[in-house]
Amino acid sequence: GKMSVVKLEECRERLRTELDNVVDFWLKYSHDNVHGGFFTCIGKDGKVYDELKYVWLQGRQVWMYCRLYRTMDRFHKPEILEAAKAGGAFLRKFARVPGTSSGQWKCAFCLTRDGKAVKIQRTIFSECFYIMAMDELSRVTGDEDMQLEAEEMMKQLIYWVQKDSSGLGRPQLPGDIPINSMAVPMMLLCLVQQLVEGRGQEVVQKYRELGNWCVQQILQHIQRNGTAILENVSPEGSELPGCLGRLQNPGHALEAGWFLLQFSAESGDEELQRTAIDKFVELPYQYGWDKEHGGLFYFLDVDGHCPTQLEWSMKLWWPHCEALIAILMAYSQTKRPELLERFSQVYEYTFSHVSLHCRAKRHEGVVAALAILAVPDST
Questions:
Q1: Rounded to whole angstroms, how far apart are CA atoms 103 and 96?
Q2: Most buried among 134, 259, 299, 312, using CB within 10 Å?
Q3: CA gap 131, 155 in Å, rounded
Q4: Three-state secondary structure call for residue 176
Q5: How many CB atoms lie within 10 A of CB 268?
Q6: Shortest CA distance to 254 belongs to which of 342, 336, 352?
Q7: Could you tell me which residues are beta bridge partners of residue 107?
Q8: Strands (DSSP E) found in the chain
Q9: What are the structural domains, with CATH classification, of the chain?
Q10: Backbone angles phi and psi of 118, in degrees to 5
Q11: Where are the alpha helices (H) located in 113-226, listed in sequence order?
């Protein structure tokens, strides 16, 4: 049905209730009071079914608690702050492991319950969530060492991405071609926005060039004369051969869309705003939406072949969160009624399918959508 201002207010109420329920769930069941940190494999009944601790999720939960504590009155509670601090202490104690290059640190991907490293990925993403956690925690505790730690790790990430990636530990193989994977500039842009928020001109200047570089790298993924967003392109911005080059990830494109919208709003770049909405919100929604059953596909092949990811047709919770955030942000900035219709469609699907079955890390999406709904002029 038609989405209206009244309906948007109903959405806000529903999201608020969802957020309360989800935060209650995590406060109740996820805290490891023996070893510190958070359990991440938890059934709907609250029972832990695997004690491994994933660093992405440890970092995100610290970030989430701090962001809620810092920005929303009803979550400004001692138990949330203490849980964030305890999670931060666990991360600082166990997540960092010596890297393959001397003087460099890596973050583990996965830890045992008591903090022993199980697995390290040869990517930058565990480090990204470590930085987000430390920076956000430093904001609520006033701990400058933590902020410094976040900035030091950020400096290392920039070095790996722009100068020399050997510290990630990937062997250089003769058939392994260099690629620009959209996840990398996208996450770096997210980190830039995290690190500069409310920090003053000096910090803004420090990361301005990197922010612009990230935007340019993301825009290289607009391919096929503007008709497709491809997940992987060459460093020069051209299409790559094979399945790797044809891969599409609608949820990622939408996520990049709202990062670009935030960046364009802060820099007053109207052209970037238009590109973000047309190519990273509207376009992935159009090709990513399942016309038969509803919902966003996980992966697609731009030429219609079967993606090599066997889970390609599954409807995961997170692309729908990204879609809700991206479409709502685009609407709040432009007031285009068709965007409200798209939001309505994704919202109805999400709450009739995903919401009932998944208590997982959904609260990040919920709080981001709530934050946008809370913008006074967005309704």
A1: 12
A2: 134
A3: 11
A4: coil
A5: 8
A6: 342
A7: 96
A8: 41-42, 48-50, 53-54, 96-98, 105-107, 110-111, 117-119, 180-181, 222-223, 228-229, 232-233, 247-248, 300-301
A9: 1-30+177-378 (1.50.10.10), 31-170 (no CATH)
A10: -105, -40
A11: 125-141, 144-162, 183-196, 201-219
Residue 228 corresponds to which amino acid?
A: A
Q: Tokens representing 333?
A: 């900035």
The two three-digit tokens of residue 328, written as one number: 């709502």
| Residue 368, both tokens | 């981001």
Q: Could you give the C-alpha distances from 167 to 58, 98, 103, 107, 108, in angstroms and in order?
A: 23, 10, 10, 12, 14
Q: What are phi and psi of 97, to 5 degrees?
A: -130, 150
Judging by DSSP bridges, how do beta strands 105-107 and 96-98 pair with one another?
A: antiparallel
Q: Which tokens belong to 324?
A: 């809700």
One digit per residue, the tens of pLDDT, for the chain of length 379 reads: 466 778 899 999 999 999 999 999 999 999 999 999 999 999 989 999 999 999 999 999 999 999 999 999 999 999 999 999 999 999 999 999 988 777 789 999 999 999 999 999 999 999 999 999 999 999 999 999 999 999 999 999 999 999 999 999 888 899 999 999 999 999 999 999 999 999 999 999 999 999 999 999 999 999 999 999 999 999 999 999 999 999 999 999 999 999 999 999 999 999 999 999 999 999 999 999 999 999 999 999 999 999 999 999 999 999 999 999 999 999 999 999 999 999 999 999 999 987 654 544 445 555 555 555 554 443 3
Give the CA count within 13 Å in the CB-facing half-sphere of 253: 34
**Cα separation, 26 vs 39, whole angstroms:** 9
Round to whole Å and give the CA distance between 330 and 342.
11
Estimate to the nearest angstrom the gap between the alpha carbon of 111 and the chain centroid. 21
**Half-sphere exposure (Cβ direction) of 243: Cα atoms closer than 13 Å:** 9
3-state helix, strand, coil in the chain (%, to 5): 60, 10, 30
Is residue 19 within 8 Å of 370, Cβ to Cβ? yes
The one-letter code for the residue type at 180 is N
**Tell me, what amino acid is at 120?**
I
Q: Which of 258, 370, 257, 252 is nearest to 319 (CA)?
A: 252
Q: Which residues fall within 8 angstroms of residue 322, CB to CB, at 6 or more apart?
A: 251, 252, 254, 255, 258, 365
